[in-house]
Specification:
The chain has one domain. The chain has seven helices and six strands; from the N terminus they run H-H-H-H-E-E-H-H-H-E-E-E-E. The chain has helices at 2-17, 25-35, 39-54, 58-63, 83-88, 90-93, 96-103, and strands at residues 65-73, 76-80, 111-113, 116-119, 124-130, 138-146.
């Protein structure tokens, strides 16, 4: 009896700590809309970002940045002050593994939290920012990159 209780407790514990990854693109989009709004605009930014990583276009990636942009690379934390800084230092600020993860990102595997949307298991985070005081104009942008 004691052994059965122990095994049952172990199975329940594993089930509770195991993350659930199975979600559809529609569920991800609905979660983005619920938490942030502008899910359609996010989808457009996602497409631009993924194409930029696939085709090696650091300028488009830099144009999506929210500056100063925090980049963690080479065991350091960098505050990239403007888009051209990211373009000029792209190869040293993004590892090949990060670029590969981001170019292969599946929409259904995005991480969606109240803070933003994570790509590549948190290698890059995007968030929705207000461009005016009334927040009638918004933009999705890259908040941080974590190699």
């Amino acid at each position: 009896m004691r052994h059965t209780l122990l095994v049952t407790a172990l199975i329940i514990s594993v089930a509770l700590i195991t993350p659930v990854f199975a979600q559809s693109e529609e569920e991800v989009m609905a979660r983005i809309e619920d938490l942030h709004g502008e899910a359609t605009a996010f989808g457009e930014a996602f497409g631009l970002l993924q194409d930029a990583f696939l085709f090696g276009d650091p300028t488009t990636i830099a144009d999506l940045g929210l500056y100063p942009l925090t980049v963690r690379a080479n065991g350091e934390v960098y505050d990239v002050l403007e888009a051209q800084d990211l373009v000029d230092n792209f190869d040293s600020l993004l590892t090949p593994q990060t670029i590969e993860a981001l170019s292969a990102q599946d929409y259904a595997d995005l991480i969606v939290t109240s803070e933003g949307v994570g790509f590549g298991n948190g290698a890059l985070w995007m968030t929705l920012v207000c461009l005016d005081d009334s927040c009638t104009q918004t933009q999705w942008g890259i908040l941080s990159i974590n190699n």
